[in-house]
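<backbone_tokenisation>
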Amino acid sequence: MKNRVDIQWLRALAVGMVVLFHLWPTRVSGGFAGVDVFFVISGYLITAGLLRKRPRLGEFWLRRIRRLLPSALVVILATVLLGFVVVPPGARGDFGGDAIASTFYFENWWLVGSSSDYFAAVAPSPFQHFWSLAVEEQFYLVWPVLILALGLSTGGTSPGGKGSSTLAKYAFGVVAAASFAWSLWQTNAAPSEAYFSTFSRAWEFAVGALLASGHGSRALQRLGQAGRRNAAVAGFALIALAAFGLNEHMAFPGWAALLPVVGTALVIWAAADFAAIAPRLAAITWVGDISYGLYLWHWPVIILGGYLVAERGSWLTALWLAISVALAWASKRWIEDPIRRSTAIAARRKRAQYFAAAASSLLVFSVAFALNGVTNAQLTQAQTAAEKAALEPCFGANAIGDAACLPVPKGQIVPSLDIAKHDAADPGSVCMTKAEASDVRLCDFGNSRAKFRVLLVGDSHAATLLPALKLVAQRNNWQGTLAYHAGCSFSLVERDSSARGRACADWNTALQNRLAKLPAFDLVITENYAKNRLADLAHVANSTLADGLAAAWQPLIDRGSRVVAVRDNPEMTASMKRCWDSAVTNSMAARCSMHQAAAFVTDPIQQAQANTDSVKLLDITSRYCIDGTCPAVIGGVWVYRNADHISASYSRTLTLWLEKRLQDLLGGL
């Protein structure tokens, strides 16, 4: 197929949108829609090639491998190695898992499985952008099979014949309609999953495929070159409108994705002749030429660069952009083009080429797997040290009220700041029910044969007590069980009709049914995020929320369980959050604090406890705030993981205090 300059411009516009969005998210607020432009282009080009010539699956896939895999593997390997060097262990998270998912092109489903949010403010993985490449590769895997089946079904020698072309239009139309309908539904029901899902994006490829099958060609014949150029300009304008008109708060893909998709389709359909102005826009064409490499490199450069240089500024943003462009050009010059154009490689037996691709992928997999193991070992070592120190005098919460405890030098605060900001009570959220799910997960801890049984239940704020409660269980020979749902309180209050609301209500119902079938717990400890309103009805009163909490507790009380309701921990004020999020050194983070009066809101759990005679209230405020101030560090331990979650390390230091308070509340344990 002739190398169309307008398609190169589309590629340049698409990658420019994505890169500028990642560099200046508030200025190019809809830049994330650049991937939708790429999807339509891919659907058009791949389908056009397949319809021209009967697809030989082995050869087709090898061409895709030679074109895409080498640069991708180089970027993944370089990111893994550099990330291991410059990113502290606590901030690496699951870089290894992301690298492996990217290597084998299932990163989009990996992100779905980990409940990732593309627009989340927390530190993202440098491999996250591989989700769109995974969607494309999944398309390349399935689409030629469909084209081949269409060719065989007509009995023709070529799938490009008239009968096959008509069938292709119908088939592509069905795929587009079905996928778009699914996208609309899933964007409303499960927006985070819809963003990454191949099924909610397939219609965009199918739109390109419809153009390749000749859909709309009759209307095009009635347009002169002026009309075609006008249609193309309108298409570019729609894409620009998406770049600056969309934003991360809109439901996407869904209806909003029509802007970039229709705009791209207009440009491709028009096939306008821009020969007269193309020389003056050679720079844009060149960006289109390096668009694949620029997409691959820019995100790791931005993420890893942030760990190399702590400061922020326009000059630094320009530097990351320049480095990304240079790496993109280099990878095209010395990796993409030589391998793609090599007649020697293409002439090798297919089996040998597949073997080389598999061996290269396994090499990257091995490196990522090994370094991920090293990271896990480093984190385990840090956690073990923290557990040993948790019961020591003057350490963490144990220092409060002890006049003999001396101030801890800032350089000795534990864990390291990077680990503290990822120091979760349930690493990997393995015990958590996801925000838009309703499955009940029960995770046991302590002595599984012990007679005294404890249930810790609620949302992620309840889970922050797990490290302390684990140690209490060990010290008192208890059997413990954890049940928690992301963003969903343990309550039978009516929920809204959103995906979160329905999932939360269903989880609470399912959990009550599950608990009713288990032996009664001796002790139930529950906590919820006091400010959480994500699944609540609009303008719901605190008294209604309190009634919902009490209703959830009552079946447990009726079976003989003693219930302890925990007042929620203080949440950082906006100024303290800015201080904490921007801190890259202990000295910077240690200065972060807030006034106690601004740290709390009315907690419905307090009203629910007051209305329920047998329920005891556990207020931990005195362990978080001292003399009217809630600091980021107490007793040489970082108190927070993020704005509203307590770090696992600090939670462990609550062990002795929590044990004593439970004894006092319940008259012995």
User: Anything to note?
Assistant: The chain has two domains: 5-369, 396-666.
